[in-house]
Amino acid sequence: MNIILATRIKNLRKESDLTLQELAEKLGCKKPCLSMLERGKIKKPSAELLWKLSNILGADIGYFLDEKRGRFLHIISNITNKEISFRFESSGVIYIDV
Known about the structure:
By secondary structure, the protein is an alpha+beta fold. The protein contains four helices and three strands. Helix content is 41%, strand content 15%. Helix 2 crosses helix 3.
């Protein structure tokens, strides 16, 4: 996971006036896991985790993606346990490679 995603998660949590513990409880994960996520130590967060974060923090899931054209964000699908890649193109559309 890149540091941009980690920073965006941390900033949104703070803007929402949530502690690490409070957000971890809402996500259904442990505080150390969320801390690792905010420090960029989790390289491929699950799609489910990003979806939950977007809902809890009131952000579009696209906000968590690196918006530089041609860059990818890789996550792991909870359903298939396979990697999914999100990519921004010049049109601004996100393409998903499975």
